[in-house]
Inverse folding.
């Protein structure tokens, strides 16, 4: 009996310490929340239906031609599938934005919503487990931090997507003048539009890989039997760049009226070069206005200190001596 009491003495000492009780309760609460989130994730993924998950994995592998997605993608894809909007317009808008960002895999939409769910749930959970129990913060501030982390995690994937679309569009616009010059040379050498675009795609793989990828996809579509007009429309849709949209419109009009493709490309290349020159001149004209604020708030104060500091110190010393 005495040996049993000796075993329970450390437990009684811990129960008498309020701080130890608080830490133990916080640890148990964190473990409970973590177990609950794991259970919810398993339910959402449909872990009880392995046949469905295996079929989805095989479909994705067959569509992409690879061995399959990474382990994280296999987890996030089924989770995001339940969050995909049911409205066709919203779903097609997200798919279009992902295509413009260069994400064309069949499960890109599901993976996007899975990442959004992950960023919405994990940061608040980490705050509840690792920060709130061990840092003395008011309950209202803790709730605000958890809500702000959840909102930031929800908005972060969309912000990344818009930034990726803008950066990719800028890279496509930078590579378009070189592509137009090469297209003019290939067209005047006697190549057709499809053959010229395929040749230009091969030549631009090193200098402008993004534009080369889009042109290569155009060549694959035409070789698969798609009409040139439909392939051009798809190129315009999946890039979303105004200069490429203008090029596609010009080529479609040339095909419709039967004019020379080489002459059309040369005229559009000249117009695009003039447009780039005007944009450069506009940016150069804005430099003086943009430099005004750094000059006023950064350069002028230091200049005044260096130029007027010694005279002011001398005047102050003279007045103090008088």
């Amino acid at each position: 009996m005495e040996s049993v009491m000796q075993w329970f003495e450390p437990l009684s000492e811990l129960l008498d310490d309020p701080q130890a009780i608080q830490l133990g309760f916080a640890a148990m609460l964190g473990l409970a929340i973590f177990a609950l989130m794991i259970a919810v994730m398993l339910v959402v993924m449909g872990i009880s239906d392995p046949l469905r998950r295996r079929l989805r994995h095989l479909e994705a592998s067959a569509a992409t031609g690879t061995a399959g997605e990474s382990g994280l993608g296999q987890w996030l894809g089924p989770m995001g599938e339940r969050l995909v909007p049911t409205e066709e317009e919203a779903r097609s808008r997200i798919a279009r934005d992902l295509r413009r960002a260069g994400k064309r895999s069949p499960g890109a939409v599901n993976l996007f919503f899975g990442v959004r769910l992950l960023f919405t749930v994990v940061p608040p959970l980490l705050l509840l487990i690792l920060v709130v129990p061990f840092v003395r913060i008011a309950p209202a501030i803790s709730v605000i931090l958890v809500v702000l982390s959840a909102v930031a995690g929800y908005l972060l994937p969309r912000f990344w997507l818009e930034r990726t679309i803008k950066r990719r569009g800028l890279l496509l616009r930078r590579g378009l003048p070189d592509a137009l010059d090469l297209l003019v040379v290939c067209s005047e050498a006697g190549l057709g539009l499809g053959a010229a675009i395929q040749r230009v795609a091969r030549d631009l793989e090193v200098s402008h890989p993004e534009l080369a990828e889009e042109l290569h996809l155009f060549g694959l579509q035409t070789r698969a039997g798609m009409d040139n007009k439909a392939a051009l429309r798809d190129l315009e849709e999946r890039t979303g760049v105004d200069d490429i949209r203008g090029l596609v419109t010009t080529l479609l009009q040339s095909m419709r009226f039967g004019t020379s493709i080489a002459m059309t490309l040369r005229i559009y290349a000249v117009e695009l070069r003039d447009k780039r020159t005007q944009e450069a001149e506009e940016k150069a004209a804005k430099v003086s206005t943009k430099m005004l604020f750094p000059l006023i708030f950064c350069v002028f104060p230091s200049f005044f200190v260096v130029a007027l500091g010694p005279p002011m110190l001398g005047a102050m010393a003279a007045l103090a001596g008088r």
Remarks:
- The two ends are 95 Å apart (CA to CA).
- Residues 61-69 have pLDDT under 50 and may be disordered.
- Residues 172-276 form one domain.
- The chain has two domains: 1-49+74-169, 172-276.
